[in-house]
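Sanity check record (used in CI):
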Amino acid sequence: MIKVGIVGGTGYTGVELLRLLANHSGVSVEVITSRSEEGVRIDDMYPNLRGHYDLQFTVPDVEALSECEAVFFATPHGVAMKMAPELVERGVKVIDLGADFRIKDLELWSQWYGMEHTSPELAAKAVYGLPEVNREAIKGAQMLACPGCYPTATQLGFLPLIENKLIDHRRLIADVKSGVSGAGRGANIGSLLCESSESMKAYAVAGHRHLPEIKQGLSEAAGRPVGLTFVPHLTPMIRGIHATLYGKLKDPTDGLQELFEARYADEPFVDVMPAGSHPETRSVKGANICRISVFRPQNDDTVVVLSAIDNLVKGAAGQAIQNMNIMFGLDEAEGLKHAGMMP
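Expected output for N-acetyl-gamma-glutamyl-phosphate reductase:
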């Protein structure tokens, strides 16, 4: 059994890690931390986990975490980069669900996150954990940066087109909607039921922190810098991300459906839907799956890709576990074979 620790176990991604790992046959969760909830039992805070864990939240402690083989950081940015170096030095595999190690250009990272990066050496070694792109590098990783939710849905949708140089890489558009859980569990007026229900709004149109991460991944796939307009929206649902992605085809042609099917034929967690389908967020709720469909409306030169994920699973905790499985040589789908929850 792989001994696992989780730093930051009280947020939505932390409890989602606990929910998914409860059914993982190869993992034992040994440590769960929270400074604010020290001494509180997991099942007192999350009664859905009654019978699955007999653990209390503890204050983060490097000595205790070093007894684990893998440690997940489900924490705000700025936390993992302070603790991860010592854990890595002690031989622990670290999987950061936050943003500390996603962007390689640390000056750019500092511009978007408003603080100096304190672990540049580890950042240089970190592997970006999008399995559909970096599976081989993930196998040997000790420090892994789990992609953000918006970047996961957006990159998976654009990748077949970018890799095959079929669209104008300078004029990409991502119109993406997210459920309220993407804002986290902390008290926030904007995510209160009365504020977010029966309403939808765009936000961060001038620039969102996930923009440089998405551009980094797509630029690597394109072999040159891409131009991207990324507009996120808050929608009145708890979970889910729906990305509507637009590109201009260089040479309008048929065969896009076959292109996507071929690109993801061997990917266990990407489902290219039949031609003409429209993926729904409810079909991926609770599941570690990205459902994609591709269209060329009116047979014109615009391609539209629809990409749907659960922001807490394939966009966070599920993808982190998928990466852990790869890192330890386990079945990639272990603990992640849940079907989506409908209705």
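The chain has a mean pLDDT of 95. If this sentence no longer matches the regenerated tokens, the check is flagged for review.
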